[in-house]
Amino acid sequence: MWLVARLECYRLFMSPLAWVLMALVQLLLAYLFLTHIDYFSQVQGQIAAIPGAPGVTELIVAPLLSNMAIVLLLVTPFITMRSFAEERRNESLPLLMTAPLSVTQIVIGKYLGLMGFFVLLLLLLMLMPLSMLLGSPIDIYQLAAGFIGLLLLLSSMVAIGIFMSSLTAQPVIAAVSSFCLLFLLWIIDWTGQSDSVGSNIFSWLSLISHFEPLLRGEIFSADIIYYLLVCAAFLLMTIRRLDSLRVAS
Amino acid sequence: MSSQTLLSADQLSRRFGLQTAVQSVSFSVDLGEVLGFLGPNGAGKSTTMKMLTGNLAPDSGKVLINGIDLLADPKAAKRHIGYLPENPPLYRELTVREFLSFCGQLHNLSGKQLQSAVDEVIHRCGLENMQKRLIGQLSKGYQQRCGIAQAIIHQPDVVILDEPTSGLDPIQIQQIRQLIRDIAQQHSVILSTHILPEVEMLCDRVQIMHQGQLVFSDTLQALQTQRQHAALKVAFRTPPSVNALTNLPGIINVETLTAQQFRLHFSPEQDPTDTLVQTAVAENWQLTQLTPEQDSLEQLFTQLVSQETQGEAA
Known about the structure:
The structure holds two protein chains of two kinds.
Chain A lengths: L1 H13 L1 H33 L7 H25 L1 H8 L3 H6 L4 H29 L8 H28 L3 H17 L9 H9 L6 H4 L5 H27 L2
Helix pairs in contact in A: 1-6, 2-3, 2-6, 3-7, 3-8, 4-7, 6-7, 6-11, 7-8, 7-11
Chain B lengths: L4 E12 L2 E12 L3 E5 L6 H8 L7 E6 L2 E2 L4 H5 L2 E4 L11 H11 L4 H14 L15 H13 L5 E5 L7 H15 L3 E6 L2 H7 L2 E6 L2 E7 H7 L4 E6 L5 H5 L4 E6 L4 E6 L6 H11 L3 E7 L3 H17 L1
Parallel strand pairs in B: 3-8, 3-9, 6-7, 7-8
Antiparallel strand pairs in B: 1-2, 1-4, 4-5, 9-10, 11-13, 11-14, 12-13
């Protein structure tokens, strides 16, 4: 299992895609980071007078993390699309299937490998808000909650991406469909503005509605369980799917 | 025979939708044996191999590898097989050495054992000069070798090769066949192909599949007696009349291919080659070509299949 994870991560870094994506994500977010700082320095004078006004963390770190979530939503499908779709297209899946490994080990291994890449990316991104420590104190705990939120969000996005990738042998279809599904889960709470029971369910399903409290620094176990459930559900479905590939094709 | 059965398949069947790809196929492979799977394209060879390696679940039937049930305990059973699918499963972005050492690790090799296994397999497959190259940059022949190396790195009891020589040039085919012969000295090999001479060169035992069923399963010698060398292709610089050829003893039929080239059909018991050559010299026909023609694979199939259906009718 760890071997599959290591291989997946290693192969990812052997391809230019991973490096290019990492660089571009950094670039985009660095630009957003700067605009947030710029905005803050403009309004700084005005809000200093108001008692109980939002501080640096609320005005820079929280919006930055929420930007990160959106950029990562755009990026994850491109990384996860490779996991199974490409193996099926290159017909290299028999290598793993013939090895003495269970399907569960293959799926979890791939998942951990991809997560390795994303955790690294996330840590690099975290350097940006942390760099503010040089100039001003920030609320480390709120940042940590946001980090946990992003990590959980990413784990579920990767799990969804891997599942979509196992559905097709075309990496591009995998990318497009996992992007659509992620986006749908993102905006699904837009119907949830009214108070009916149905809309509550929709807003509960939304990926973003569980992320926002974490961004504010509030950690609810319900949110954490939601993400863990999404991960487990999609990984289980991937395992089932790969198993069924052997039975019916 | 006292030899040990390493792999046995029992009543394997597999359908794809309405189409039956493999129907009640049973066979076994003994220690140190090379079994050739022969059949036209679409006969169910690859499907059978996929079922033997656990890449495809059979609708019914059982596979025992080294006495371990593949379906009940796949992890344990898979330790004993090495598999090269039709398209070698390779990661193009890795170097040969990286890839092979990963494959070794997949089969629980580590440390010095892994290093020596990788070295040995690189040596056996003639990949010494390529070990630092990326697999994606290698030629088809070397990729195929890599695929074979991957299948034998963990010293499996049974090596299953699906059309190992397809798509290669003649020199590469020679090299791969030599490699398979080497492998056969240490492992049992199941080999699928649609090329008859390949089976004759490599295999101890032959199984012929046709439309998902085994139509023939016996030793190579038995196959050769089945085949009748009942035609001669001849050419003369000053060709005689067709009648003169037909009058030779044993000739049943003469087919005129070109003005100078003929195909002579004769009954297998009465070989006319000697008389033909003597007459040709005596009559000054100037013989330029004399080739015994063997049945093509297609003819052999039709022969076997028709025998089969006759057998069923009787």
